[in-house]
Specification:
alpha/beta, five-stranded antiparallel beta sheet, 12 helices
């Protein structure tokens, strides 16, 4: 979906396909048919943006076979779909029964992360619509914190500098500008937007910036205005933003609140949980750890890294951090010029929701994704952007 900002620039809104498990190119093509096109039809649009997730094997097939890349581009056009952004965070196995810590490998100290991201950039340059010259790729925020030391930090910085050089060369070759965005996430080396400033300044290249995920920002209790002011002041570009909402518990000391939270503790993904204390932020790597005994104090609100549907906040006594998303989006798109032109709805946890909240079948999932995009569209038009055909 495209929008005209009052300054005349085009802002793109997509939804991320990492909600649909697919490891191969055939799986990606099936996603377009079974999920993406039905969402577009529900929205009554001739064109729908998708934030494509390409696992290792799918990316490799596309970058080594020009005919396969042309075929994917034709299939996108035939189904009324377009791609200006990729989710390059998960490498493989994101649809597995247990993902947890595996999503953080390979990290940026591993040569395979550089090669995979460079491959994604070449693919994206070939998928961009004819009238779009800029693409974006979100990636993991360097590494999970426990597998990182000074030597690996320098290796990661060197890899990002090499990536920037390859992106320069790609633009010379194709005329397409591809930028890559570190996506701060709780528990990682770069957990907050402020954590991103030093490594990105050290890399010192305009092609490498930040992806502001509004669920992650909220989980870490970051103030949206402070976070974005810091980025602007440091000259760190917001390459893209993922629009998502975290799980919020206002009174986690109450038994009924803990019971409600326990329904969201599930075996597939990590749900890092945080609370603010007088001594600073405290947290656990997963929601079940937070609920075990006194791992976290229950005197102040908890937030958990669980992407809940934007349009359907959990039932009381829980809620979502949708107000944080709204505040961030107001800053990103509501000013005289947009701080980013690539927005992506990223609720990948539909099938990890408590059983009574999960969509039953493709049709209900498509209904839910369409409802999320409708909410995001309405927020943008309320900010003065005009939806384009």
């Amino acid at each position: 979906m495209r929008f005209r900002h009052p300054d005349g620039s085009t802002v793109h809104l997509a939804y991320c396909t990492n909600v649909h498990p697919a490891e191969t190119l055939d799986g990606v093509l099936a996603q377009l048919r079974d999920h993406c096109e039905p969402v577009r039809r529900r929205l009554g649009r001739d064109r729908l943006g998708i934030g494509l997730w390409l696992a290792k094997d799918a990316a490799r097939a596309l970058v080594t076979d020009p005919a396969a890349l042309r075929g994917l581009r034709c299939e996108l056009e035939r189904r009324g779909l377009e791609v200006v952004t990729l989710n390059g965070f998960p490498y493989e196995g994101f649809g597995a029964e247990e993902v947890k810590y595996r999503v953080y490998t390979p990290d940026w100290a591993d040569p395979e992360r550089l090669e995979h991201t460079a491959a994604l950039a070449r693919v994206l340059a070939g998928l961009l619509p004819d009238d779009v010259t800029e693409g974006s790729i979100s990636t993991l925020p360097l590494a999970w914190r426990t597998a990182y030391d000074d030597e690996r930090a320098e290796t990661a910085r060197a890899a990002l500098r090499t990536l920037a050089e390859r992106l320069d060369a790609l633009e010379e070759l194709t005329g397409r500008t591809i930028r890559v965005a570190l996506e701060p996430e709780p528990g990682c080396v770069v957990e907050t937007t402020r954590d991103a400033i030093a490594p990105l300044t050290a890399v010192g290249h305009h092609r490498i910036g930040i992806c502001v995920d509004t669920c992650h920002l909220a989980t870490s209790f970051e103030d949206p205005d402070t976070a974005l002011d810091d980025l602007v002041r440091a000259g760190v570009p917001v390459v893209k933003s993922q629009l998502s909402a975290a799980l919020h518990a206002e009174q986690p000391h109450l038994p009924e609140v803990r019971e409600a939270l326990a329904a969201f503790a599930e075996p597939r993904f990590l749900h890092q949980t945080r609370t603010r204390t007088a001594a600073g932020l405290r947290g656990t790597d997963d929601l079940d750890e937070a609920l075990a005994g006194d791992a976290l104090p229950g005197t102040r609100p908890w937030r958990s890294h669980f992407h809940v549907p934007l349009h359907a906040a959990p039932a009381a006594p829980l809620t979502s951090t949708l107000p944080v998303l709204t505040s961030v989006l107001t800053r990103l798109a509501g000013g005289p010029h947009p701080l980013t032109r690539h927005l992506e709805v990223e609720t990948y946890t539909w099938q990890a929701l408590p059983p009574e909240l999960r969509p039953r079948g493709r049709a209900q999932l498509a209904d839910g994704i369409a409802a999320e995009l409708t909410l995001a569209r309405d927020l943008l038009t309320d900010l003065g952007l005009k939806e384009l055909p």
